[in-house]
Amino acid sequence: MQFPSVDLADEQGLLAIGGDLRPDRLLLAYRSGIFPWYNEEDPICWWSPDPRCILQPGALHISKSMRRVIQDGRFTFRTNHAFEQVIRLCQTVSRKEGNGTWIHDEMLEAYCRLHDLGYAHSAECWLDDALVGGLYGVRIGRVFFGESMFSTVSNASKFAFIQYVKLLEAEGVGLIDCQMRTGHLVSLGAEMMDRSMFIQLLNKECM
Length: 207
Fold this sequence. Notes:
Blueprint: E1 14-17, H1 23-31, E2 35-36, E3 45-47, E4 52-55, H2 64-71, E5 76-79, H3 83-92, H4 105-116, E6 120-127, E7 130-140, E8 143-151, H5 156-170, E9 175-179, H6 183-187, E10 191-193, H7 195-205
């Protein structure tokens, strides 16, 4: 089981079509700088865009308004308390940036399997007893590969993201893969990196 060289990806980043979402294939893909993204009615598409949107935890930007949100104690931060609920909300809650719902049931089941194996994680923002924002992704070694986030209350996803980046940095994570550039991520400190440099970092940090 192997993927083509990422250098063979087209201008949009599409590298390969087909295969399955078994845990071993997904983990190999992430270690290789590749991720799945496709519509439910289509075959599995594997992507490796160049450049890549990344965040180095030390470069996290917290605006004055978000510092106030964090300090007022309205939200509570948790990890892995409601993983499946997080991914289902990422599936159903509309967002300003993005290309619509792509987290169909096959994807949901695949990442829940990764969660059971200890690789997929959720970062959550709670308001009283309600889950109001969060994100999920895959962690391998000192790299966290972000997949999707949602928010039903203003600033909730930003709160979860900021708190999780702080936690990851404290645990020694040096690279967060954001995959595709959005204004939301850039406002938090994300930047673009050449794919070749990104792959070099993965080879070093995905231990």
